[in-house]
Recover the amino acids of this structure.
């Protein structure tokens, strides 16, 4: 089966992140098509996914277009029941569906005051009554989910599910804007920031196109609170220790250096996303640890 998924800027499009996680976090291959927000690129791309008006939008192997994240989640769960999009237990599944539906429709103050920005992290953010109310509501529904359906792990309803994919951009907002939440909520945010699929998305977001000034805020900065990675940099010359790109197997054209070692890649994007977070990429990690 071959799927196509249209998305916007990885650094800023929260719904695109949700749509992509519904594939990558559940092991379903997808061809991603990207377009820059607030430009003519997006409507041109969406013309190929008619009648969609927003991203994400999916086209299935049968050429059917599926619009909106909830619809994509349900369609993938139906087509790939083995992937585990929803919990198997009926009680946990009902909780997960309730959470995803509320996230899809609610938390407007959080969306407006704290738009997703994976290229920044601020030490403090001005609080409003409506933003505080949204954070309180998050605490309420997250605690309810754990009490009603949670298991021993970090996720809301047992294993990672659609509900967690839908709250991933919320976790990034809490991280970006240093929003005040409880210790259990901070632990949930930390689990998202460390999730392998999210780390790969953010690595791509850091190097995928120019900054969108709309999302910048004049708040004091701080380091990104996610996991530390291996320090790496792009280099123009050197002798790579690998003979082919660790992702595509193609010929090497671009290089990075880390701890005195030079690794080669087949294009600038493969190299740059790896420089952004080398340990997010299993192909790189396997090569790095093999020596």
């Amino acid at each position: 089966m071959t799927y196509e998924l249209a998305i916007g800027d990885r650094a800023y499009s929260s719904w695109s992140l949700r749509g992509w996680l519904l594939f990558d976090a559940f092991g379903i291959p997808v061809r991603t098509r990207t377009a820059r927000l607030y430009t003519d690129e997006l409507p041109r791309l969406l013309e190929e996914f008619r009648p969609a008006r927003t991203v994400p939008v999916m086209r299935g192997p049968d050429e059917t277009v599926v619009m909106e994240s909830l619809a994509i989640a349900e369609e993938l769960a139906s087509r790939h029941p083995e992937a585990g999009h929803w919990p198997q237990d009926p009680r946990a599944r009902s909780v997960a569906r309730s959470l995803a539906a509320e996230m899809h429709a609610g938390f407007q103050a959080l969306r407006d005051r704290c738009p997703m920005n994976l290229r920044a992290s601020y030490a403090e953010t001005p609080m409003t009554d409506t933003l505080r109310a949204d954070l309180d509501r998050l605490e309420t529904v997250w605690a309810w989910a754990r009490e009603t359906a949670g298991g021993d792990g970090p996720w809301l309803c047992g294993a990672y599910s659609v509900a967690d994919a839908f709250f991933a951009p919320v976790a990034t907002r809490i991280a970006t804007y240093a929003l005040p939440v409880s210790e259990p909520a901070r632990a949930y945010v930390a689990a998202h920031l460390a999730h392998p699929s999210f780390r790969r998305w953010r690595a791509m977001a850091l190097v995928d196109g120019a900054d969108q000034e709309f999302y910048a805020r004049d708040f004091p900065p701080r380091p990104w609170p996610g996991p530390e990675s291996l320090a790496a940099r792009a280099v123009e010359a050197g002798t790579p220790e690998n003979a082919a790109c660790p992702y595509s197997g193609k010929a090497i054209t671009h290089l990075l250096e880390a701890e005195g070692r030079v690794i080669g890649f087949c294009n600038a994007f493969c190299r740059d996303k790896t420089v952004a977070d080398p340990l997010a990429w299993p192909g790189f990690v396997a090569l790095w640890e093999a020596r």
Notes: Residues 129-149 form the longest helix (21 residues).
